[in-house]
């Protein structure tokens, strides 16, 4: 387990956390989510089915799950800065590989490496950011929110680049987009190598505390459904916007709205996240997420799609926070690592299965509308299950 001691020596904690967030910007905001922006062009140019297209995010999720579970050992072996920088460099190499080949196996391996690298950078960077925030309790929540804005920055920036690049160069130019995103990511990586990243955070054996799954089985199932539902929306929604007649500007605006939602999430859900009533907070946020995912089914107008992006985005970035709060409220400190690991596995399995299953449904039924219906239904069911989760026990 990672046990925070004192933050890295830096006179500007906000600046350091923003620098650490670049690992999440590259690994998740660009590495994982930007794939949705190039998926339609790749699928058409390479002759993929929707199942094959979904598999690319499935294999990425597998890599992330493996990386997340091995992150503590990696940090212990190579240190904080090497884990963060090495994971981000792995993401850069994988992004470049996506630009170099259309071979399905090679692209799958690149997406796998992207997942592993993203997990290393995100877990190590997040733990370090939490250490810094904890040492500044008067503004700890604000400082930590800066780190979790990282994926939103990546979503926003890739949304401003990919659609217009595809429009300018025409069909089959997906590889040019990957090069553009690789160069953008490389520029964002520079501060990680120019900033001193150190910590005296240490490892303890506290994480071996017993953890009973049965009392939170309903919550684990809810988090599994969130993983499956959100990733389906984030994988196929741009294809849906495009199929509905949305050009580069519409795609960029839609993706940008999701990204910008990350910046208002901490304020939008502050009071909800403070609710210590079992799974109530998660149920409220997941329910909102489901509404956002289901709105495109009511119409293809710009207003409906924009509302969907904002509602989905605001809730999407808050679910992980609600799960962290659930663990903090219901378990003593020594059980947090095991509890969070259980949540991570449940979520990881969900986002691994989601894209390929929803892709298969789309292939079988012939419309992306079914995929988005399934996505919204999974999120709604997850909200219902979370609402049934009762409080496990007082935090100590």
Helix/strand layout:
Elements lengths: L1 E2 L9 H18 L4 H12 L3 H29 L1 H21 L3 H31 L5 H9 L1 H20 L4 H21 L7 E2 L13 H27 L4 H14 L3 H4 L1 H4 L6 H15 L7 H29 L5 H30 L2 H21 L8
Antiparallel strand pairs: 1-2
Largest sheet, described in full? 2 strands, antiparallel
Q: Mean pLDDT across all residues, rounded?
A: 87
CATH architecture grouping of the largest domain? Up-down Bundle
CATH topology of the largest domain: Growth Hormone, Chain: A
Total strands: the figure is 2
CATH superfamily of the largest domain: MFS general substrate transporter like domains
Rg, Cα atoms, Å: 20 Å
Structural category: mainly alpha
Count the DSSP helices: 16
How would the global form be characterised?
globular
């Amino acid at each position: 387990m990672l046990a925070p001691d004192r933050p890295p020596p830096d006179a500007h904690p906000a600046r350091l956390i923003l620098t650490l967030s670049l690992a999440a910007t590259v690994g998740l905001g660009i590495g994982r989510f930007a794939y949705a922006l190039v998926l339609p062009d790749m699928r058409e140019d390479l002759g993929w089915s929707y199942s094959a297209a979904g598999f690319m995010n499935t294999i990425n999720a597998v890599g992330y799950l493996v990386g997340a579970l091995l992150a503590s050992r990696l940090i212990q072996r190579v240190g904080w800065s090497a884990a963060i920088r090495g994971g981000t460099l792995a993401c850069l190499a994988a992004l470049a590989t996506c630009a170099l080949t259309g071979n399905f196996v090679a692209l799958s391996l690149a997406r796998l490496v992207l997942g592993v690298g993203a997990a290393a950078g995100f877990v190590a960077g997040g733990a370090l950011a939490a250490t810094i925030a904890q040492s500044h309790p008067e503004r700890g929540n604000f400082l930590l929110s800066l780190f979790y804005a990282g994926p939103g920055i990546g979503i926003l920036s890739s949304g401003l680049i990919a659609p217009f690049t595809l429009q300018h160069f025409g069909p089959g130019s997906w590889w040019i987009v990957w090069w553009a995103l690789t160069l953008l990511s490389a520029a964002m990586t520079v501060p990680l190598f120019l900033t001193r990243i150190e910590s005296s955070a240490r490892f303890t054996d506290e994480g071996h505390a017993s953890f009973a799954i049965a009392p939170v089985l309903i919550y684990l199932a809810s988090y599994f459904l969130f993983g499956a539902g959100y990733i389906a929306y984030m994988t196929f929604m741009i294809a849906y916007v495009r199929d509905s007649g949305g050009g580069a500007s519409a795609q960029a605006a839609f993706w940008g709205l999701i990204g910008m939602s990350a910046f208002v999430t901490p304020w939008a859900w502050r009071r909800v996240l403070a609710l210590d009533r079992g799974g109530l907070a998660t149920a409220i946020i997941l329910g909102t997420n489901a509404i956002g995912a289901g709105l495109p089914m009511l119409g293809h107008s710009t207003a409906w799609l924009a509302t969907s992006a904002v509602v989905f985005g605001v809730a999407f970035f808050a679910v992980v926070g609600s799960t962290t709060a659930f663990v903090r409220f219901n378990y003593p400190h020594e059980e947090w690592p095991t509890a969070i690991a259980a949540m991570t596995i449940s979520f990881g399995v969900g986002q691994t299965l989601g894209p390929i299953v929803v892709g298969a449904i789309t292939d079988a039924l012939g419309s992306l509308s079914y995929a988005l219906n399934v996505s919204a239904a999974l999120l709604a069911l997850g909200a219902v299950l979370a609402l049934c989760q009762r409080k496990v026990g007082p935090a100590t």
